[in-house]
Amino acid sequence: MKRSSYPKRYLLSAFITLLIFFLGISLGIIIDNMRVSYVENLNAQQEINFEDLQLQSSYINTLKSENSSDVCSAYQAVIERAVGDLSDSLAEVEDYSQNNRINKEDYDRIQKKYILDNIRYWFLVKTAKKQCRLNTTTILYFYDSKCTICPNQGVILSYFKKIYGNNLLVFPINMDYGKDLSIVKAIKNQFNVTSYPSIIVNGVTYKGVVGKEELAGILKKDFQEANSLNSKDEK
Amino acid sequence: MNTLLTVLLWGTYLVGLYSLIFWLITLLNTDITKEPKLKKIKNWPSVSVLIPAYNEEKTIEACALSALSLDYPKDKLSVIIINDGSKDKTKQIAERLAKKYDNLRVINLENGGKARAINKALETVDSEYFACLDADSFVDRETLKKMISIFKRSSSKVAAVVPAMKVYNPKTALQKIQDIEYNTAILLNRLLSELDSAYVTPGPFSVYKTKVVKKIGGFDEQSLTEDQEIAYRLQKNFYTIKQCPDAWVFTSTPSNGRAFFKQRRRWNRGGIETWLKYRRLLLNPKYGNFGIMQMPLIAVGYLMGILALVFAFFFYIKPLFRSIHDLYLVNWDFMTYIKDALKNGLFHNFTWLNFDFLTFFFVFTFSALAIITVIYAFKYTKEGWKLGRILMLIPYILLYYLLQSVIVTVALTETILNKKRRW
């Protein structure tokens, strides 16, 4: 005796399943394209901000001996906001790396661009700090995906970012993408960065994961120096 | 590992989605709103209700009384309590009841397991049908007539009819979650009945054709789950199992984790052993839907138990440990994070960039289908929605299946290692 089976129903179910599955995949692709255009948008915005800042920097340089404090205070606000934006969008790009599954090439390009942006801002803030005595500390943070303890450093850095807000500027350099860039190589050589994670705070290189207490001490010292310089200046 | 995990995840997703859609199509093809009306039968056939009991002094009286007060011609209904060597007062209670009711008799045996107890009683039974009733379950007055009607209206190939099981008086949270599960199972069993794919004739009040069960050799005394074994054996011999969707039976369920673990471990172990015993039915077109769909789905179900644990590790446990480790790195200063969240809002970082579409799609489609199924099931079993029940859906979806996967994994490991079986 033969029992009943429903081959048509099996096929229909398979069809609907695949339909839902491919709907999911297509939505995924659409969202991924949205992501790329979103990042490109951010890039364009950063470009304008950067040029704006660069112009302001040159402008302050021309004022030099004259009283530049008015311009400086405005400049400080702008630079803090701009760098804050940059680090936010970087955090987003980081998340993107975990969720992105399709657009590998676009992603590589965006990552390299961000590294260059980061280094540009890092320079700019260094100069601005001298010119305008900004109460700001910069950290250049080197890491790569092969390094298993690097996420620990990342957690500690974003913790301090939450405490100091825009007064602490962290510029992460993902060496997976940065290793071919000659400016990155030059900075690596100058500051003797040989292993990851490494952070550069105020010109000093620290290798390995810098723990919470140690970094708190380093940052505190750095902010005090900046403050004392400012107060000396006022006298 | 990540690629493998992704492939496994999507594979599981596709199989799960496929079976859900298959059942939904079956549901749409089945007119389940139309209830089978009671057939007007002049000559009701004779039925014996067998109640195997081992140390059931708490529930045996209520159970036997529910069987005795079934709405059924008294001369056609006999109840047999099989005392399987109980060490408590089961024997005294049963014998006291036997004195009071003419159509109740007691068989006293040395302890030897439920299947043997039923087989021994079957030797003395010559009624056309018999029902097995677990001593911790209670049957609704109308149930038997409804179930016999199913036999009378269906083809002669129907050898067993299964009831609609509900949880008796759910009190603890675990019982309330099982209440959701049992109600959903009623709907699922209805669909399996449509597809001729039932793989269990549950202990609480399944009705069998006496002749057929005797012909195929009675219940398997070696099996841990004789109610699954007999269902597979009926399927193997080309008999049909039907469900009676409104034949209510109320069964006691484990109230605490320990008892639950013990019960489900036995069910899963017995289920796996039975499946392996009848593995030749797998993909065998002679067995129709049961061979082509149900047998693979049962196996996939067991394998998914293990996979669910793997996924739980990567998606629940690993992130949890990661967060704890992160807090350890900053000397447990979680106030900074709380302050930040209060200041900026929890989702201030949200953009299209960090939106994890895969997880969202996965969770969304499954939860939606699961919730639709549960709502439909409760409508079907005529249960209302109370706040308590809606709240229980959360642990039911998030935790209950995880707990089940742990038990399935234990049962599978034990089967593979061929560990000594325990009841």
Summarize the structure.
The complex is a heterodimer of chains A (235) and B (423). Chain A has 235 residues and is of the alpha+beta class.
Primary descriptors:
heterodimer; A: about 240 residues; alpha+beta; Glutaredoxin; 4-stranded mixed β-sheet; 7 helices; about 70% helix; about 10% strand; elongated; B: about 425 residues; alpha/beta; Spore Coat Polysaccharide Biosynthesis Protein SpsA, Chain A; 8-stranded mixed β-sheet
Please bin the fraction of helical residues of chain A. Answer: over 70%
CATH hierarchy class name of chain A? Alpha Beta
Q: Strand portion of chain A, in percent?
A: 5-15%
CATH architecture label name of chain A: 3-Layer(aba) Sandwich
Order of helices and strands of chain B: HEHEHEHEEHEHEHHEHHHHH
Q: What strand line-up does the widest sheet of chain B have?
A: 3-2-1-4-7-6-8-5
Q: Report the C-alpha radius of gyration of chain B, rounded.
A: 24 Å
Q: What proportion strand of chain B?
A: 5-15%
CATH topology of chain B: Spore Coat Polysaccharide Biosynthesis Protein SpsA, Chain A
Oligomer: heterodimer
Number of strands of chain B: 8
